[in-house]
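Pipeline run #58 for the internal structure catalog. This entry was flagged by the ingest filter as a single-chain record with no existing model, so it goes straight to prediction. Upstream metadata was stripped on purpose; only the residue string is passed forward. Reviewer on rotation: M.T. Logging verbosity set to normal.
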Amino acid sequence: MLKRFLAGAVLAAALLAQTPAPPKPASPLNTAVLEAYVRHLLVWPATVDVTIGDPTPAPLAGFYTVKIRGSLGGQTQEVSFYVSADSQNIIRGDVYNVNASPFEDDLKILRTDNQPFLGTPGAPVTLVEFGDFQCPYCKQEAGVVRNQLMAAFPGQLQLVYMDFPLESLHPFARGAAIMGRCIYTQSNDSFWAYHDWIFQHQAEITAENLRPMALDYAKTDKNLDIASLTACMTAPEPRAQVDRTIAMGAALKVNSTPTFFINGRRLVGTISLENLKIVVEHEIAWAKTQASKSAPASATDCCSVQLALPGAGKAAAK
């Protein structure tokens, strides 16, 4: 009897294992029409594999958000579309809410706490730089941003530095970033002095001589404790902090340095002082308009209207 029971249990388990999973719900969209149109729009031939993601509610009434990926060999391209419920209308682009920053998605990712900074906290404009200490373009831009741009907007601009070492291209960049984090833990001002020093000596530094050169430099800074700095260079914390900003940059799809975010507005590469000023001035003006919209009405703006009626002055004088 026991053998018969066990045999029946095994058979039942086998049958359950062979039971196919419930079918995936059909897409509410006409995916065949959608794929054919997108192939034509993006010039994707039959050799490109197309994957249409599951539709999700879009920020537009009556539309779905659909991510469509084309793959060929090791290359992929993903494009987002808004597709009407009847699959007859397709929108490619961005949807903005006028009550929020147009760069809201990136601003949600950017976290500037515990980062080296210059300028005034709470300033109307924040410039976040993702930089690499071995990058020649970062060196070129450093003086423009660090000195000239900051001097042009006293009290109105804050600069925040994020490490984004491109390790595959620059052998000493990560080590320099870790050293910078160790210096920053002791002094924000000392970090910026180190920032300037390392760019000045960029051509002389290698992965092999970075540590002794940086320690020799640090001995000239009276704000730094060399024993603490030496211990920090082998500790896990500065590495984790550099990894944090690298991950943040990756989430923002940063792939080159320098990359700037001015109040969330992305600018890539070396930007002239004149063009940087134009963007900062624009952001300052925009911040003022937003502040005036949110400012509470004054007592004289609120609740009374004075009319120039005959005899009004006499009545008020009584």
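catalog note: The two ends are 112 Å apart (CA to CA).
catalog note: The CA atoms of residues 164 and 250 lie 9 Å apart.
status: ready for reviewer M.T.
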